[in-house]
Each structure stands twice: as C-alpha cells, then as structure tokens.
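User: tokens in, sequence out, please.
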C-alpha cells in the first residue's frame, strides 16, 4: 500500500488565493484583433497630427507665384468719397509686379492700423488669396497684414494701382509719420 501524503485542507485555499493574486498582478492581454485595431488608430492619429503640422501656414509674407495667377482684384478705400473703389486686371505686368512686391515684403512691428483695402489674387479654378492692405506710417512704404505685418515699397505699388485705373487721389496714402520723399506723391488731405 502506498502512503498518501497528508494534505492540509487549507493548502487548496492558499493555492487559489495565490492564483488570484498572480492574476491581479498580470492583466489579461486584449485579443489580437483589439490590439491591431488600437495600433492602427494610434498610427492614423499620428499621421493626421503630422499632416496638420505640415499644412499649417508658415510665418512670413505671402508666397505668390505670379505664373499661377489669372487676375488680380483690388478693393481700395477712396479717401475722397469715403467709399470703396474696385478694380481688376489680367495684365501680366501688373500681376507680376504686385506678386513680387508682396512676396518680398519685410516684417514690421505689429500695430493697430485698420486695413482699408484688400488685394485678391485669383488663380485657376477661382482659387483666391486675399491680403489686407494698410497705408502705413512711412512715406516710402505701404503695408500688408497676413499672419503678421509687412511693408513693401509704396511707389511701385501706387504705379500699379494707377495702371489698374485708380486716380492718384483715390489711393489712400495713409498718415505718414515721416515726410514724403520726391518719388512719393503727397498724402491726400482728409
């Protein structure tokens, strides 16, 4: 006869408690399908975040490719009538000059001037790029507001506005703090 080892009836309870404590310390893994789904969702969220960061507008003056512009529209405040005068052009020289002027604008300090005019470049498929224009405070410069404030030479801008059909008196020259030089027409009295 073989001898049966004597078992303590509490051993079984102790081993069950030990099993429960091990189960609590190691969480059960979710099924493989769930893990795969979670991984795909995390990767997709990361891709969306990267795409959002890459598509954010860059700081700096607007980048305008004159070759892709079909026409340009300008809505300018008329200081004589206190109204708005609209003009548009498909002239390549006007488009190229305005695109170059605005694309090469220099940053200036933020200020609280009101944008009285707007220039809109229109590309294929009626894609529009609108830029707020400010007369500014310097006699030699006009300004634009788009993700910051920038200045560009006033004289070529005024020349192109005249080429688009604006009368010199219709062009808001702002309130220059510095005296106008000989190449800049005097500001219209208000």
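Assistant: Sequence out:
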């Amino acid at each position: 006869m073989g001898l049966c080892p004597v078992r303590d009836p509490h051993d079984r309870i102790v081993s069950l408690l030990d099993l429960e404590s091990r189960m609590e310390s190691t969480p059960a893994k979710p099924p493989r399908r769930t893990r795969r789904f979670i991984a795909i969702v995390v990767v997709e969220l990361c891709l969306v975040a990267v795409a959002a960061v890459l598509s954010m507008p860059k700081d700096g003056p607007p980048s305008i490719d004159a070759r892709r512009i079909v026409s340009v529209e300008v809505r300018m405040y008329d200081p004589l009538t206190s109204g708005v005068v609209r003009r548009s052009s498909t002239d390549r020289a006007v488009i190229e000059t305005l695109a170059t002027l605005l694309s090469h604008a220099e940053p200036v300090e933020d200020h609280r001037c009101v944008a009285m005019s707007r220039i809109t470049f229109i590309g294929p498929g009626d894609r529009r790029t609108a830029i707020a224009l400010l007369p500014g405070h310097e006699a030699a410069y006009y300004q634009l507001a788009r993700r910051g404030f920038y200045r560009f030479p006033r004289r070529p801008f005024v020349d192109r506005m005249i080429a688009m059909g604006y009368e010199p008196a219709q062009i808001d020259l702002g309130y220059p703090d510095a005296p106008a030089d000989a190449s800049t027409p005097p500001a219209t009295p208000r």
